[in-house]
Design a protein that fits this description.
The structure is a single chain. The longest helix has 13 residues, at 13-25. The chain has a six-stranded mixed β-sheet. Strands 4-5-6-10-7-8 form a six-stranded mixed β-sheet, with helices on one face. It is globular. Helix 3 (65-72) crosses helix 4, helix 3 (65-72) crosses helix 5 (95-103) and helix 7 packs antiparallel against helix 8 (238-250). It contains eight helices and twelve strands. The protein is an alpha/beta fold. Pfam families: Metallophos_2. InterPro entries: Ap4A_hydrolase (IPR050126), Calcineurin-like_PHP_lpxH (IPR024654), Metallo-depent_PP-like (IPR029052), Pesterase_MJ0912 (IPR011152). It comes from Roseateles depolymerans.
Length: 252
């Protein structure tokens, strides 16, 4: 079964639309949505409705820290723009949409795959997998062969052999990677709606569970429209639009 791994949508309708279309053109048979559907962007209601519909069709959907903050109130440790975006987003969603976000699980296991927003060792704490140390801690916390998580906004792949040898590398888009069966793997597909590696194209990954092949994808989308939508949304911090615009400049 080929599944699309999508994380950190952040209410970016333009990016998510482009990724969904690209994934379907690749013949995906399922979706795994790894959290942070809201926050920062201007279309939280539309994005949440898409996630809800995909989940109703059998997709994996786990909660991210922004999702829970919108459903339950912002975390005081969030920076000011993020907190302001959370409060704005809460006012854009219906009670049913807020309830859906608040009821999402922190993690889900299907066969030998673990799906979680931040990490496997403390899903509720939302600590970042910033390097090999946190990745190995995450892999040691689960018996699943494959762990898929988001939160970091940049694509990355980690692995752990049966003898305890660890490795990592930064993948290149579109190149299939065979995930060897004698290792554990931690896959971070990158951010769909808020990529932060200097490339403005939306990130996601394709995983074929039958063959064990993984490929990281970059999908161009209308960044200018997403920037304009944030600027036009009364109440969203202007800095959030400028951050997306800056990624566009860096990517040229």
């Amino acid at each position: 079964m080929k599944i699309a791994l999508i994380s950190d949508l952040h209410a970016n309708r333009e990016a998510f639309s482009a990724v969904l279309a690209h994934a379907r053109s690749q013949g995906v048979e399922g979706f795994a949505l790894l959290g942070d559907y809201v926050g920062y962007g201007s279309d939280p209601g539309w994005v949440v409705d898409q996630v809800l519909a995909l989940k109703a069709q059998g997709a994996v959907a786990v909660a991210g820290n922004h999702d829970l903050a919108v459903a339950r109130g912002p975390n005081p440790t969030m920076h000011e723009d993020a907190r302001n975006a959370i409060e704005w987003t809460r006012n854009q969603l219906t009670p049913d949409q807020l309830r859906f976000l608040g009821d999402l699980p922190l993690h889900e296991v299907r066969e030998d795959c673990l799906f979680v927003h931040a990490n496997a060792f403390d899903p509720a704490g939302f600590a970042y997998v910033q390097g090999r140390l946190e990745a190995m801690r995450s892999l040691h916390a689960t018996e699943c062969r494959y762990t898929f998580c988001g939160h970091m906004h940049e694509p990355m792949l980690y692995h752990l052999s049966g003898t305890g040898k660890a490795g990592d590398f930064r993948p290149q888009p579109g190149i299939p990677i065979p995930l060897l069966p004698n290792r554990q793997w931690l896959v971070i597909p990158g951010a769909c709606g808020q990529p932060r590696d200097g490339n403005p194209a939306a990130c996601y990954a394709l995983f074929d569970h039958d063959s064990g092949d993984l490929s990281f994808q970059r999908v161009p989308y209308d960044v200018e429209a997403a920037v304009a939508a944030i600027r036009g949304a009364k109440g969203l911090p202007p800095a959030l639009a400028e951050r997306l615009a800056q990624r566009l400049v860096l990517g040229r």
